[in-house]
Amino acid sequence: MQPLWAQKTTSPKTNIRKWASELLNGAALEHAHVGICIYDPGKQEYWYQYQDDKYFTPASNTKIFTLFSGFQLLGDSLPALKYLETDSVLYVKGMGDPSFLHPEYTSQPAMDMLSRTDKRIVLVPAVVTNKRFGPGWGWSDYADYYQPELNEWPVYGNVARIRRHRDTISITPPVFADTAHFTVQEIDTLKEAVTDRDERSNHFSLQYARRDNELLEAEVPFITGNIQDLAQRLQDTLHKPVTVASPTTVLSPAAFKVLYSRPVDSLYTPMMHRSDNFYAEQTLMMCGARLWDSISTSSTIRYMQEHYLSFLPHPPQWVDGSGLSRYDLFTPRDFVSVLTAMRQQIPQERLWEIFPTGGKGTLRNYYQQQFVHAKTGTLNGCVALSGYLVTKKGKTLVFSVLVNNHNTTSTNVRRAVERFLTEIWDKN
Questions:
Q1: Which tens digits make up the pLDDT trace of 58-75?
Q2: Residue 161: helix, strand or coil by DSSP?
Q3: H or E segment to which residue 47 belongs
Q4: In this structure, are residues 51 and 234 in contact, taking their beta carbons and an 8 Å threshold?
Q5: Cβ neighbours of residue 306 closer than 8 Å, sequence gap 6 or more
């Protein structure tokens, strides 16, 4: 046996270079644009860096920055609405809370207030600079579940829910249940049921084969429309009149109070676990509503960059909350930096609940040893994973692996990255 002084040891960095070389030269990534950053916050040193100063389209890894914004700006509860009561009128103004009448949430403080009041309900338009879709979003995705429209007062998550089981077919909210809004057609040649919506109207359709007995539960975004449409939607829900404030009505913003709906983590956890684009976008809108008497995602992003993200090594091009936009550009080192700051501010137990781990959420088919707590990201040609890795010896590392322009399946890329990170977990 060699004496201790003569024994050679291999540092973690040496091992990672070897495993990274295997990853980068493997079939899944050999033609891709790749950036990797592995950081040890305990020793404040980088274990591995490869193109971590290059910009990438991060897809849903953008939600990490949205989450960080929520931590800084929203406090512990979601703002449901602003309200002002007089002797005869209840003035209300939306603040972007996506949980209003969303089936995921049983408690509805805003609905309770509006239902109980015997005063006249007057909707005050919010100043909203956002458009119904984010910059750079796919225009043809208007009927896809992952891209609901954005507005100041979401109702039912801004989607129609179509359900079919054998001969039982339904659509909610009930306002869409008539034939003017919903048509059903049997087509025996279909292999599976198909839902859709007209591009420019709230007319929904379901096509299915009668022999298909599979349960169908689909979400199709509806057109939110203008402030009058929103008032009508609230009126239909409340079964009492809701009017819109006259343009000549003068109300001091300072006179309004804020009604809160629920703890923020009840939104953050599903946002991160299932990568909910709608929750992410509305989170930045709520941040804007809390800061100013207006709602502007771009202003919120600019405010975050000026006041809370000046430590980033590479100023990102950040345009939306969800990462649906290909205009978003971040570096791996940006993600490691914000994740490190997040870990310094937020208790680990809370972070571990909010971030998906192996077998849960978007990581349900990966990392069964549950040693990562991380956010996935996927667009065509883009695969991302950034978060925290706890090694077998209990050391917590912060990492980001961003892959753009691959020409294989996202599953192949994810499996290759999984093998790389598993080696780091297993050998350290």
A1: 999 999 999 999 999 999
A2: strand
A3: strand 45-50
A4: no
A5: none
Q: If DSSP codes are grouped into helix, strand and coil, which group holds residue 106?
A: coil
Contact residues for 343 (Cβ-Cβ < 8 A; gap 6+):
41, 351, 388, 396, 398
Pair type for strands 204-208 and 33-40: unpaired
Q: Which amino acid is at 288?
A: G
**DSSP 8-state secondary structure symbol assigned to residue 293:** S
Side by side, the strands of the sheet bearing 120-123 are 242-244, 120-123, 89-94, 77-85, 257-263
**What's the pLDDT tens digit per position in 325-376?**
999 999 999 999 999 999 999 999 999 999 999 999 999 999 999 999 999 9
Find tokens 């990462």 and name the residue.
323
φ/ψ region of 303 (left if φ > 0, alpha if ψ in -120 to 50, else beta) reads alpha
In sequence order, which ranges of 36-181 are alpha helices (DSSP H)? Answer: 62-73, 109-116
Single pTM value for the model: 0.94
Nearest CA to 181 out of 236, 111, 113 is that of: 236
DSSP state of 251: -
The pair phi, psi for residue 208, each rounded to 5°, is -155, 160
Largest CA distance in the chain: 91
